[in-house]
Amino acid sequence: MNRTQKQSQIAILLLRLIAALVVLILAFLIGYIFITGLPNVSWKFLTSPAKAFTAGGGIGVQLFNSIYLLILAMIISLPIALGASIYLSEYAKDNWFTSMIRTAIEILSSLPSVVVGLFGFLLFVVQFNYGFSIISGALTLTIFNLPLLTRNIEESLASVSDDQRQGGLGLGLSKYETIVHIVVPAALPGIISGVILCSGRVFGEAAALIYTAGQSAPALNFGDWNPFNIDSPLSPLRPAETLAVHIWKINSEGIMPDLTQVSSGSAAVLVLAILIFNLSARYIGRKIFEKMTSMN
Amino acid sequence: MLNTKNKSDRFIYHFNPEETEITMQTKNLEVYYGKSLAMHNADIQFQKNTITALIGPSGSGKSTYLRSLNRMNDDIATVKGQILYQGVDINQPKIDVYEVRRRIGMVFQRPNPFAKSIYGNITFALERRGVHDKRVLDEVVEKTLKQAAVWDQVKDNLHKSAQSLSGGQAQRVCIARALAVEPDVLLLDEPASALDPVSTQQLEQTLRELKKDYTIIIVTHNMQQAARLSDYTVFFNLGEAIEYNKTRKIFTRPKIELTDDYVSGNFG
Amino acid sequence: MQDQKLAKQLMKKSKTARYERFGHLLSLSALLLIMAIVLGIIIFIATKGLSTFFRDNISFKDFFTGVIWNPGTKTPSGQQAVGALPMIVGSFLVTILAAIVSTPFAIGTAVYMTEISPKRGAKILQPVTELLVGIPSVVYGFIGLSVVVPFVRNTFGGSGFGILSGTFVLFVMILPTIVSMTVDSLKAVPKYYRQASLALGATKWQTIWKVVLRAATPGILTAIVFGMARAFGEALAVQMVIGNAALMPHNLVSPASTLTSVLTAGMGNTVMGSLQNDALWSLALVLLIMSLLFNLMVHFIGRRGAFKK
């Protein structure tokens, strides 16, 4: 065997080692989260309120806040992202205006989330006087979510065959009707996958929420679902610490004795949720696609 | 006998408007993609209730011409000149392009059923235009599917996804879909190119039937198909209409040498 | 005349045409809203961030070169103590170190996934990296706090909080980002490049090193810049392990701070409109400008290196 061949073999062996090491690190990460965290997760942990000074607190309120904020943020951002992506994929011409807007969206998507959070703080908390509240948090998460969701939906729309658009236009329908009633339904599997993936990202976001949704989770009265009462779970004007913020908060200044258990349990729940989001994004997208093209 | 073929470059047949009813006609049509001229010199008249075939090698401008007729090129090209539909120039800004496309329907190369049921595919455009009466819609579905000669195959499966149909059936559903909005001209852009020979034959038979009620213009790369199916044929080459005549004449005694070369398979 | 009747019908503006106008405007306004948000962010933060200099009359020199951060008080030499240099240095240090450590690992892994064992890459590594890109930064911070900090403390001494811990955490955080983008750029290298090289008698390694990586260089650079942008802007994970002392870092294991860590820790404790608060907004402005610069770099690299197909 000559020198270059030997060199090649050694280099490739090295690459295999690096890959193995990376897999090891990643496996350790995921293993650590679940092995240390899952034993602390119980139904009681998931449903009971947090305790500040004593052991045995749960994450019930935080979990509810995370889900509620996620739903609100998605309800606000989905129509905007859909509109923007429709314009970008169907109407935008290849000119300076379009490229300026694309640059703006890129800038927004690469902005550190803490900067987005600070903007939300300035605009919603201070300027609009919403205070640290669900609504401030949801609007800030919307800003955080918009660029990626827009890009995901745009990609799904672009993957729909042009034949479909031609079909709609050929029947004398407007471009808009064709998009809304033909292209968007045809792109639905991709759009739903995109929405779920973005949900995972929103669900785990903390930096954008610290100064918008706040860092406290007052006890909620789960018997009162009138959004106009301040201790109702649905009240949009109450402060709402989410699960991700909770992990940060107790690790920065928590003093409860079971701090590590609560943190690791919360982290496991968070990662488990992301995992479910990831898997269901694939699964649901595929199912819908099959259903749309099948014989029933 | 001497060769009497016309040595000039082009031959375009003209109807006597006193005797024949012209449904569509183009005058001085020029189509530009960006700045480059893709198609010109095609002053052609289409007689009512006939089938006219547009033939020619790929890139000859036949599809570009067809797509200009119902202004499907609006977004991608600049179209100059007149497109007369029953005497009205539809190539002007004041014209409502959606009404034009309703009256001048189009069927495409690849079958493109929407991700809806067969029934939904056909009623879709009508519903968008405000027709919601179930009885009316049922009638339209049955009538158009019968016209497209696919009713017997799909009548029990009207609520199944149209995207699960075979190519031939899907293309017929697309024809039915186009007929549902009551056009009087039907443009077909190589509608059989994705179909097997049997489906193709059935499709041709269907078009012969439809000729009674519609004016049909069809682009095809298949010369036998043009010869079998059409009453008139236009031969396109390099973005120009070279010869327009009765189909029988084009295929037996073409007046232009280039046409002769093409139909006898010497190039293309 | 029948012609005129038809012409009238065809010229009447249909309901469909009105739908079209409506839809066009609706989607355009959604897009303009996003545009307005981006402009709003830049304008708001720039206004706030600049008031330190133009309202509180702090000089740029004091801000960017001063090493004592305690806004509202004076330094021993009598200037306002708004020296942001420790945070700026901290941010750059963790970012650059994390990128230096990540890059060889990321490229190695990406090469393994695309060139050496594409099957195993697609089956195991691909989904795992996708999952890791999605893991929230607080989880990384928590693991950093409970694994990395004790490890650094036991190995190198000190408290364990500092640049080194921050680097470790960021290394793992940006690794999946760089890997997945590098994989994309390696996949974009046309197959015939490899075939041609192998056909000329080059070994697999020579092909990877001299042909594939060379051709994918712009894409890989973009991936690294993206990773750096993520590291520079990361707030909570870093804030949890770096020690949060606004001091110039003496070594890699002494407590330090970054722009983001001071911002997250400090914003809640200051009063709007005070110098303390304005100074924090100036840090946010630096962060924003750096983010724009990273963007510009990506554009610049992208323009030079796109594959011609």
Describe the model.
The complex is a heterotrimer of chains A (296), B (268) and C (309). Chain A is an all-alpha fold. Chain A has 11 helices and no strands. Chain A has a single domain (41-293), classed as MetI-like fold (Orthogonal Bundle), CATH 1.10.3720. Chain A is globular. Chain B has 268 residues and is an alpha/beta fold. Helices cover 34% and strands 24% of the residues of chain B. Mean pLDDT of chain B is 91; it is low at 1-7. Chain C has one domain (82-305): MetI-like fold, CATH 1.10.3720. Chain C is 76% helix and 3% strand. Chain C has 12 helices and 2 strands, in the order H-H-H-E-E-H-H-H-H-H-H-H-H-H. Chain C has helices at 2-11, 15-54, 60-65, 85-116, 118-134, 137-156, 163-187, 191-199, 204-233, 236-241, 259-266, 275-305; strands at residues 69-74, 80-82. Chain C has a two-stranded antiparallel sheet. The chains are: A mainly alpha (296), B alpha/beta (268), C mainly alpha (309). Chains A and C meet through helix 1, helix 3, helix 4, helix 5 and helix 6 of A and helix 2, helix 4, helix 5, helix 6 and helix 7 of C. Chain B: Residues 24-263 form the ABC transporter domain.
Largest sheet of chain A: none
User: Ranges of chain C with pLDDT <50 over ≥5 residues?
Assistant: none
How much helical structure, as a percent, in the residues of chain A?
Answer: over 70%
Number of domains of chain C: 1
Please, what is the CATH homologous superfamily of chain C?
A: MetI-like
The helix tally of chain A amounts to 11
Q: Kindly report the greatest chain-chain contact and the residue count on each side.
A: A-C, 92 and 87 residues
For the record, give the distance between the C-alpha atoms at the N and C termini of chain A, rounded to a whole number: 62 Å
- CATH fold-level assignment of chain A: MetI-like fold
**Average pLDDT value of chain C?**
90
Strand content of chain C: under 5%
Mean pLDDT of chain A: 90
Helix % of chain C is: over 70%
Shape of chain A: globular
GO molecular function (chain B): ATP binding; ATP hydrolysis activity; phosphate transmembrane transporter activity
Organism (chain B): Lentilactobacillus rapi
Protein name (chain B): Phosphate import ATP-binding protein PstB 1
GO cellular component, one term (chain B): membrane
